[in-house]
């Protein structure tokens, strides 16, 4: 009888592993919370298999900021804050494919390729300016990738992780997540290629990306890094602290 129970338990466990593998992108990406109509956007980037849409804040400036948002984050919610705190920069808030009013389905390969294409498009729009890259949570994976692959002088990471695989494994230790995961966002492997300045905003009460994952990412970086801690902040309420926006503003001001 004990062998039968063990066999049934093993079968159930393997079935759950298979379900996690097959449904993993539904568990990673949450575009359903960000949908808006295309006519509400004012910026378009055509990709070979999708159209990305978003917003350009404070148009007409020489320098630009490219923002990669968090998972399930309606990036347009940041428009007023960016307009207020970064009045001398044009800020681009573009929804990932499948998010907001953008077409397509999200995957790591597609989102990283889109991120590079977006940077290159913004660089063409600002030929005499500097482009700062900002990434929050999931968006830190895109931001690190762009910073490693392009000539970027200033990188701002908000609640970043070492890798999505490591974070997911810490949340689900009973499953072999590292073996099952397709979209890994291995920032800890990519960040050493970046040679510019970096600002990291870290939430002390973050249970989505626990601080040790941010610390491991920081340990991989050999360049100058400024870290601003918010000991009482969580993953989602970090930006409600006025010191959040002033840290970003002051970091970019020192780059002038």
Outline the structure in words:
This protein is of the alpha/beta class and 256 residues long. The chain contains nine helices and eight strands. Helix 3 packs across helix 4 (138-149). The longest helix has 27 residues, at 2-28. The chain starts with a helix and ends with a helix.
Provide the fold topology:
Blueprint lengths: L1 H27 L14 E5 L2 E8 L5 E6 L10 H7 L3 E6 L13 H18 L5 E6 L1 H12 L4 E5 L5 H8 L5 H4 L6 H4 L6 E7 L7 H9 L5 E6 L11 H12 L3
Oligomer: single chain
SSE order, as H and E?
Answer: HEEEHEHEHEHHHEHEH
Radius of gyration: 19 Å
What does the largest sheet look like? 8 strands, mixed
Summarize the structure.
The protein is of the alpha/beta class and 256 residues long.
List keywords for this structure.
256 residues, alpha/beta, eight-stranded mixed sheet, 9 helices, globular
């Amino acid at each position: 009888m004990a062998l039968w129970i063990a066999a049934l338990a093993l079968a159930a466990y393997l079935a759950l592993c298979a379900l996690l593998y097959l449904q993993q992108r539904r568990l990673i990406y949450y575009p359903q919370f960000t949908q808006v109509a295309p006519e509400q956007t004012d910026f378009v980037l055509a990709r070979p298999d999708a159209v990305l849409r978003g917003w350009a804040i404070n148009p007409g400036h020489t320098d630009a900021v490219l923002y990669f948002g968090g998972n399930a984050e309606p990036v347009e919610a940041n428009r007023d804050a960016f307009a207020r705190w970064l009045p001398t920069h044009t800020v681009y808030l573009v929804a990932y494919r499948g998010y907001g009013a953008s077409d397509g389905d999200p995957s790591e390969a597609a989102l990283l390729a889109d991120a590079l294409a977006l940077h290159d498009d913004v660089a063409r729009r600002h030929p005499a300016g500097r482009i700062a890259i900002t990434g929050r949570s999931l968006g830190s994976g895109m931001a690190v990738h762009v910073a490693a692959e392009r000539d970027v002088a200033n990188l701002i990471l908000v609640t970043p992780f070492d890798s999505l695989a490591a974070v997911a494994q810490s949340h689900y230790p009973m499953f072999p997540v590292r073996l099952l995961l397709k979209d890994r966002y291995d920032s800890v492997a990519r960040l050493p290629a970046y040679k510019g300045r970096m600002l990291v905003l870290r939430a002390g009460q973050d249970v989505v990306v626990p601080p040790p994952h941010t610390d491991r990412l920081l340990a991989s970086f050999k360049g100058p890094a400024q870290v601003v801690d918010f000991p009482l902040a969580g993953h989602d309420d970090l930006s409600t602290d006025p010191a959040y926006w002033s840290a970003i503003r002051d970091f970019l001001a020192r780059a002038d």
